[in-house]
Amino acid sequence: MGEAAPKPKASARKKKGDSASSITTPTPTPTTTAESAPRLSASAKEGNESNDDSDDGSDKDSEETVKSRTGKDGDD
Predict the structure, then answer these.
(1) Would you give the distance in Å from CA 69 to the centre of its chain?
(2) Which of 9, 35, 57, 67 sits at 20 to 30 Å (Cα–Cα) from 26?
(3) pLDDT digits (tens, 9 = 90+) for 34-55
(4) Overall pTM surpassing 0.90 (yes/no)
């Protein structure tokens, strides 16, 4: 009896593993990939917009600082 029990379990595992696991595993994978792609695009867009604003502010600050120092040096 002990030998008969493991055989059905092994067969059941193989069938479930081949059919259920193989079919179930690839199905969620494309769904996750599709959701990840738009998220990356959204993050990239937000990052670019923030970088543009930061660059503009940095350039203005740098120019003002240089002009201020130059003016003070000339007055002294």
Answers:
(1) 44
(2) 9
(3) 555 565 555 555 555 555 555 5
(4) no
d(CA 38, CA 17): 32
Measured between alpha carbons, how far is 26 from 38 in angstroms, rounded to an integer?
A: 20
Residue listed under structure tokens 């970088």: 51
* Alpha carbon distance 9, 57 (integer Å): 68
**Which segments of the chain have a pLDDT < 70?**
1-76
Q: What is the DSSP string of the chain?
A: -TTTTHHHHHHHHHHIIIIIIHHHTTTHHHHHHHHHHHHHHHHHHHHHHHHHHHHHHHHHHHHHHHHHHHHHHHH-
Using CA atoms, how far apart are residues 39 and 32, in angstroms rounded to an integer?
11
